[in-house]
Amino acid sequence: MGTAAIPGPRGTTGGTIDAEEHSHGHGDAPVVTAPSWTDGKRWAWLLGLFIPVSPFVAWGLVEATGLGILWWLGPVLVFAVMPVMDTLIGTDAENPPDRVLAWLEQDRYYRWVTYAYVPLQYASLVLACVLWASGDLGVVEAIGLAATVGCVSGFAINAAHELGHKRDAAEKWLSKVALAQTGYGHFFVEHNRGHHVRVATPEDPASSRLGQGFWSFLPRTVYGSATSSWHLESERFRRLGTSRWTLRNDLLNAWGMTVVGFVVLVAIFGIGIAPYLLLQGVIGFSLLEVVNYLEHYGLVRQRKDDGRYERTRPEHSWNSNNVASNVFLFHLQRHSDHHAHPTRRYQALRHFEEAPQLPSGYATMILLALFPPVWRRVMDPRVLAHYGGDVTRAHVHPPARDRVLRRYGPGTRAAEEGARVFAVRAAADEAARRQAEEEAAAAAAQALVVADAYRCPICSYTYDVAAGDPRNGVPAGTAWSAVPDDWHCPDCGVRDKVDFVPVTEEREPTPAGHASAGSDG
């Protein structure tokens, strides 16, 4: 194979990598020889498993000290300890070299860390049910325990997020199991097939807007995500030509896990635990949504002349390299690379220099988001600077538009400062635009090629005409020209039909397609 010229993010060893080696980094890779490179955070990832055992730790501390306030250990960890750790430990922008990505992704240690989260989270839930049912806890203590368990279930959604993006069927089911504790099984559908397609657009309920506070964002994203996921799954079954009212429906089987699980727990431990089960679920999915709130705040993809939105790029996600939050959240803060390569495993996600950076880690930013005036004071100037002082280019919350324009509009001091900051990174933005134009030109050239297979340039999923995509309503034998234009890659959910690269009879990407795939690195 040849090589593909790929701009290397800061921390890599070079800008050109072997295309075959690079392709292995997008999914389950074959066994490769371990390189001399060492992951400095290898054992730190185990810290992520401290969250699901925190109810056990709280129980032990209460027994040892008699202090009922310690049932609130979970919120203390999330809103106090983790922000302090982010500040004290600082950041780490090092990227794994491209040459080790194949080895890094096939190392099963990393995936077993995420697998272990699920049994631990349910062990803590059962412990909580035992304690709630015992009658030994006062109301405030029981609520504190529910808040701690809610932190466990909220972080479980992050583990489910990591698992749900993978191709392996067992990992996808494990993702649904992790989501069942919060009743948020629809996240499995909406995040992969909705959010990743519509991110940073007005159509995405999980992308927050400049001037929109978290408490305004929360009901919109909860309702919008649920209804969007139902629409997506209904559309899938319409294409299949069968009823959506089946356990093969990813929403019904995911929600069914929650109903069955909660009924069993109430049957065993009594109806008295029901309010606390519901409370921990609400706290859990609210933690997810506050993370959604901060990940794309005010950022927007512009609509092109053909009606499609510009491709998702690093500048459409807020990122952070704070070590503490990153190890507890399995590199979720390297969000731009995740949107570029959704199937890439957490340990291989990379930092992009051109991506907008949060002033601190997610733990600190979650705390700020709960207080909208403080959040706006910290983040609004950063959004303004990101758009060169031109607030009209940002994703502005419609009800707040007049207020935002008065404060940040043309001629204001804030706009001038934003323009000054923006000028510093203008050269990098121009380079990114040129790269996008080259990729678009290569994709246009490939559109003229007729082939029996077409490959996603992000995750290397290959649509084979003979096999089709029956699960998503595209029967075997469906010619590429007959595949619906709104069909998306079933693996990563990021790329549309128009982005796919024709594959020759030898199953090698054609030269233009090769360049297109490479430019995504």
Automatic annotation (TrEMBL):
Q: Which residue intervals are annotated with compositional bias (Low complexity) in the record?
A: 1-10
Where are the stretches annotated Disordered?
1-29
The UniProt keyword set, sorted, is: Cell inner membrane, Cell membrane, Electron transport, Iron, Membrane, Metal-binding, Monooxygenase, Oxidoreductase, Transmembrane, Transmembrane helix, Transport
A cellular component term (GO) from this record?
plasma membrane
Where found in the cell?
Answer: Cell inner membrane
Q: Which GO terms describe its biological process?
A: lipid metabolic process
Q: Name one GO molecular function term.
A: monooxygenase activity
- One short Pfam name that applies is Rubredoxin
Where does the Rubredoxin-like domain start and stop, copy by copy? 451-503
Membrane disposition = Multi-pass membrane protein
Q: Where are the transmembrane segments?
A: 43-62, 68-91, 112-133, 139-157, 251-271
Q: Which PANTHER family match?
A: ALKANE 1-MONOOXYGENASE 1
Name the family the entry cites: Belongs to the fatty acid desaturase type 1 family. AlkB subfamily.
What name does the UniProt record give this protein? Unannotated protein
List the source organism. Answer: freshwater metagenome
- The organism's lineage? unclassified sequences, metagenomes, ecological metagenomes
